[in-house]
Amino acid sequence: MKKILITGALGQIGSELVMKCRDVYGADNVIATDIRTADSPVVHSGPFELVDVTDRQALYDTAKKYGVDAIIHLAALLSATAEKKPLFAWNLNMGGLVNALEVARELKCQFFTPSSIGAFGPTTPKVKTPQDTIQRPTTMYGINKVAGELLCDYYFHKFGVDTRGVRFPGLISYVTPPGGGTTDYAVEIYYKAVEEGRYTSYIAEGTYMDMMYMPDALNAILTLMEADGSKLVHRNAFNITAMSAAPEDFAAAIRKHIPDFEIEYEVDPVRQAIAESWPDSLDDSAAREEWGFRPEYDLEKMTADMLTKVKEKLRK
Fold this sequence. Notes:
alpha/beta; 2 domains; 6-stranded parallel beta sheet; 3-stranded parallel beta sheet
């Protein structure tokens, strides 16, 4: 990658990925785009353009203007929000993806877009979910992700677009607030631990889901994008994970730093149903073998860093 266009640049992943890419590739070589603007380092530290990904011509014109050779497409509506607005989610998630793929095809760009554990469903094996397995999700978000995986495969085989992607687990970060995902509780719990010493979880006790700290997620994107394409078998939907945890596991890890921390439960039936349809844990051996994926943070190491960073952020 030499010059990268990133859609959804002000979202949870984008806001951190833009800054990391600018550190690695140079500020002028990373073009951040979003449908909105903000008083953010993403906007002020390098090129930024207002672009609606459902407008294919605007996306093409921006990519052409900057001469990009890679597109990282992050713009999407997340799981819980997508269930509230399923038709809007379909139009944004699928319309935006096919537009971005078309621009990549026309301009011969390398292409990355993330899939998710949401691409699995209740009939998928829940423990150590295989790389290749049944995918029959029961949410609009999951349906979008399965269709996206297949669409990226199609653009690689049909048009030779160098498409790549991972299935992200729940992502945990202190930088940008959560944006309507089912695993958002794993971010909120750290803020409430620092601010109030207690948290009410909308996900039930004993509900395991795979999680990952944002630094590992960002490294995974860049490592995969820089990997030798001839060694990639799966390309667009690599299982990756760093930990499998339930709400009480986060609480136990937090108590090692805040001994009096308390957790209660007030289950949201919509997000709980989504969570129960997802795997408890993933088999990420294909990512490890094909491009050397290795996470750095487990639950204990992430918790120590999250609590430190959240305290610093709240003091500002």
